[in-house]
C-alpha cells in the first residue's frame, strides 16, 4: 500500500486563509444583524417614551371645539407692563356657555365661544413668572388660556388652606396676548373675578 502524499505547505496555507476569511465574513454579518436589531429596538423605544407635546395651532384664527380666537372678549381687555401695579390686577367676569372644552382637556368644563378676557403683556423679551386665577364662591370654575406661543393651558379649581379656585402658574410667561376663558365643570353660570399677578402670594 502506497503512502498518500502529505498536503503541501502551500495548500495548508490556502485552507487557513479561507477559514479566516469565512470567520471574518460571518462575524461581519452577525455584527450587521446586531446593529439593525439595535436600531429597530431604539426606534420602538423612542416611540414609546416620547412625551406628547401640547397641541399647536399655527394661525390666530383656528381653534378646536368652537372656541373663537378672534371674537371680542366678553368682559374687556387690559395691557399690563411687567412690574405692573397694583398687583394683583382684578377684573369682574362670569363663566357661562355650552362650549365643551374636553377636546382640549378632559376636566376643563364648559365655556363661551368668545374669550372672557384678554391680557396683553408687555415689557421686554425676558420671560418671567405670571399667575392667572379666578376668584369665586363657587366650587367648580375652571380657566382655559391660550398663550402667545400658541399653547393651550387649563386650570381646575384647587381647594386648600390658601387657594379656592382655578390657578394657572406660568413660570416663563412670554410677552404677548393671553386669551382667557372662564368656565365651569358643570356648565353653570359662575360670577367672580379674574386675577392677574406676578406673585405666588396672590390667589383666590
List the helices and strands and how they pair.
Layout: H1 9-49, E1 77-81, E2 89-95, E3 99-100, E4 110-111, E5 117-122, E6 128-136, E7 141-146, E8 152-155, E9 157-159, E10 164-173, E11 176-184, E12 190-197
Parallel strand pairs: 1-5
Antiparallel strand pairs: 2-12, 3-4, 5-11, 6-10, 6-12, 7-8, 7-11, 9-10
Give a structural overview.
The protein has 204 residues and is of the alpha+beta class. The chain has 2 domains: 35 residues; 134 residues, Jelly Rolls (Sandwich). It has 1 helix and 12 strands; from the N terminus they run H-E-E-E-E-E-E-E-E-E-E-E-E. A 5-stranded mixed β-sheet has the order 1-5-11-7-8, with no helix packed on it. A 5-stranded antiparallel β-sheet has the order 2-12-6-10-9, with no helix packed on it. A hairpin with a 5-residue loop joins strand 7 and strand 8. The N and C termini lie far apart (111 Å).
Quote the CATH topology of the largest domain: Jelly Rolls
Euclidean distance between termini CA atoms: 111 Å
Radius of gyration over C-alpha positions, nearest whole angstrom: 32 Å
- CATH second-level architecture of the largest domain: Sandwich
Beta-strand content estimate = 25-35%
Give start-end ranges of low-pLDDT stretches.
45-61
Largest sheet: 5 strands, mixed
CA-based shape: elongated
- Summing up helix and strand content along with how strands pair, one would put the structural category as alpha+beta
